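Late entry, evening session. Most of the bench is empty. Finally got around to the prediction I had been postponing all week. Sequence below, unchanged from the version circulated by S.P.
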Amino acid sequence: MNTPSAAPTTPAPAAPATAPAAGAPTTGPGRRGALGPVGLVLAGGISVQFGGALAVSLMPRVGALGVVTLRLLVAAIVLIAICRPTVRGHSRADWNTVIVFGLTMAAMNGLFYQAVARIPLGPAVTLEVLGPLALSVATSRRAVNLLWAGLALGGVFLLGGGGFTSLDPAGIAFALGAGAMWAAYIVFSARTGRRFPQADGLALAMVVAAVAFLPLGIAESGTRLLVPTTVALGAAVAVLSSVLPYTLELLALRRLPASTFAILMSLEPAVAATAGFLVLDQALSLTESLAIALVIAASMGAVRTQIGRGKAKTLQPAPDA
C-alpha cells in the first residue's frame, strides 16, 4: 500500500497475500491476484450507484441528514450481526484508527448528501471524485500513473459539462469536502483492513459513524425515521450504498495500492451516467460519451500498470541465501 508508514525506513508491504513465501513456487496468482481486487472495486461502485438512486427517492421523506442516519444505522446493525467483531485484544492505536475511520465515513456521507440536495447527482459525483484523484497523484511513485490520473481528470471535467459556474456554491463546497473525506476514507480503510481481521474493523467503524450522525438525523427528521416504509427503504440504501461497497473496497485495499484504487474511483461518474441512461432513460451526449471513454481508459491503464508491476515482482529471481 502506498500509504504513510509508522516507520519511514521500512517499506510498506506490497500485496502480502500474493507475495511468494521462501522456497515456494513463484507461479500462481499473477493475473488473478491483480484482477481480483479490481473486480471487487467495480462491483462496489455499481452497488453504490443503485443505492444512490434509491437514496434520492428517499430524501423527500426524511431529508438528506435523515437518509444518512438510516443508511449508517442500518449498515452498522447488519455488519455487527454478520461480523460479530471482538472488542477485546486491540491496542489503542487500533481503536484510534477505527474511530477516525468511522468519523471519516460519517463526514463523507453527510457532506455528499448535502451536496446532492443542492446540485445534480452527476456533477456532485464528478466533483467528489477529485479527492481520490488528488490522492492518486500524491501517493503515486510511477510517472505513468500521473498520465492515467490526468486522463481521468480530463474525463471528470468533461462529464461535468466542462465547468461548474451554474451550480450552487454551497453544493460545490459540500461535494469537494466529500471528496476530501473520500480520500481520507481510502487511507483509513486500508489501515483498518491491516489492523483487523475480515471486516471487523469496518463493522466497528460503522458503529462509530452511526452514533456520531444519529443526533443530526433525529434533529432533522424526528419520528419520520420510524415510519416502516422509510425504514425499509433506508435498509435497502444501507445495503447497496454502505454494506456491500465498503466491504468489497476494504477487501480490495488489502491487495491493491491506494494510488490504483483512487484512479479506479474515477469510474464512479461514468457508472452514474450509464445507470442514468439504463434506469432513468437519460440520453448521453457526445461530450459525456467521450468523458466516459477517457475515464475508462485511465482506469484500464491503471489496472494494466498494476498487473505489469505484479508480474515483474513475480518474475524476479529470489536472492541468494
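Two things to note before I forget:
The radius of gyration is 20 Å.
Residues 1-34, 314-321 have pLDDT under 50 and may be disordered.
Will write this up properly tomorrow.
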